[in-house]
Specification:
The protein is mainly α. The chain contains 8 helices and no strands. The chain starts with a helix and ends with a helix.
């Protein structure tokens, strides 16, 4: 029962953290809007399949290197503190941009890639994507790995479903030409995610300090 609750906690926190990143405008969101306007709703989920395939590949590479560091408290503590700093930075950045950020659903640019490959290319085109994975992503993978591959699986599924849910919602709004995703609702999502990031950053910071003190 306790393990089940922990796994559900990993899943839900991974979902919200990933959703906070998905909400921020970037090349992947811009491309999804353009492709949904040109190809229809399914462009969004297919783009996310490419994005997810790339992230799964990176996750496997991270897992292959975890064995050498998982039993070293100094490294685990340092990674956890780095993750906490990234969470605080992301939360602050999200809060500070809430009032000025708007969700552009105009879809004015045409796509040049198949949606699946676009998910990979547009992810790689965003330098913050790799920074996120080698800092916060790595720290979360290390934390989830404490509960075995099942913990990592719950982390990744939560992460991927957040991306899939948000980008599918955006693609549906564009394809149907509806404006149910108002700026106020969008900003409300951002505010809630920012507060969660700041709070979860405290958890990661506590976990990092506790690990370092016990080293």
């Amino acid at each position: 029962m306790e393990l089940t609750l922990i796994l559900l906690g990993i899943f839900s926190s991974s979902f919200v953290i990933a959703l906070s990143g998905a909400l921020m405008p970037g090349p992947l969101l811009t491309y999804t809007v353009a492709e949904a306007a040109r190809r229809g709703f399914w462009a969004g989920p297919i783009i996310m399949l490419g994005h997810g395939a790339l992230e799964l590949t990176l996750l496997v590479l991270l897992l292959l290197g975890i064995g050498a560091i998982i039993n070293q408290p100094l490294i685990m503590g340092a990674v956890a503190l780095t993750g906490a700093i990234v969470l605080w930075w992301l939360g602050y950045d999200l809060l500070s941009s809430v009032r000025t950020t708007r969700l552009d659903l105009s879809g004015t640019s045409a796509g040049k890639f198949h949606p699946f490959w676009a998910g990979i290319v547009m992810s790689l085109a965003n330098p913050y994507w790799l920074v996120w994975w080698v800092t916060l992503g790595l720290s979360y993978v290390l934390f989830a790995y404490n509960y075995g591959l099942m913990g990592v699986a719950f982390f990744f599924v939560g992460h991927f479903l957040a991306d899939l849910a948000w980008y599918s919602l955006v693609a549906m709004a564009v394809a149907q030409g509806k404006r149910f995703l108002s700026d106020r609702l969008y900003q409300g999502f951002m505010t809630a995610c920012a507060v969660f990031l700041l709070a979860f950053g405290c958890f990661f910071g506590y976990h990092g300090v506790k690990t370092l003190l016990g080293a």
